[in-house]
């Protein structure tokens, strides 16, 4: 009986991992588009999602809701995608939206965390 429970548990874990894969793949695809758009000046670009991502970035720059209370869903998604990208990015001169700023914030936070550990 114990092995039946273990098999069920393992199967459930496998389903969870499989459920996460499409999300991770979508994030990677969006990150590739985010990396593509800084150098793309073609209004008729054939990259799937390029035009839409450019509109999202334009929306962020013009959004008043985001400036007031940060409740704009589109803006939040762009920021989350940018953070996801920045955590993986190794380039020192990355042109992706917010990348350098986010990396600086991450470095500042890690320095503060190290100081807090040393102080305690």
Explain how this protein is built.
By secondary structure, the protein is mostly helical. Helices cover 76% and strands 0% of the residues. The chain has five helices and no strands. The longest helix has 35 residues. The N terminus is likely disordered.
What would the keywords be for this entry?
120 residues; mainly alpha; globular; disordered N terminus
Average predicted confidence as pLDDT = 80
Strand composition percent:
under 5%
**Uncertain runs with pLDDT below 50, 5 residues or more?**
1-17
Give me the number of helical elements: 5
Helix content: over 70%
Q: What assembly state would you assign to the polypeptide chains in this entry?
A: single chain
Q: Quick one: overall form?
A: globular
Sketch the topology as an H/E string, one letter per element.
HHHHH
What's the helix and strand layout?
Blueprint (H helix, E strand, L loop, with lengths): L1 H35 L13 H13 L1 H6 L3 H16 L10 H21 L1
Please sum up the structure shown:
The protein is mostly helical. Helix content is 76%, strand content 0%.
């Amino acid at each position: 009986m114990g092995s039946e429970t273990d098999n069920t548990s393992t199967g459930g874990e496998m389903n969870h991992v499989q459920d996460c894969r499409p999300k991770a793949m979508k994030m990677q695809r969006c990150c590739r588009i985010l990396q593509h758009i800084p150098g793309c000046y073609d209004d008729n670009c054939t990259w799937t999602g390029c035009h839409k991502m450019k509109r999202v970035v334009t929306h962020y720059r013009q959004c008043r809701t985001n400036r007031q209370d940060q409740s704009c869903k589109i803006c939040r998604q762009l920021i989350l995608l940018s953070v996801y990208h920045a955590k993986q990015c190794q380039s020192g001169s990355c042109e992706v939206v917010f990348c350098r700023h986010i990396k600086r914030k991450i470095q500042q936070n890690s320095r503060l965390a190290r100081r807090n550990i040393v102080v305690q």
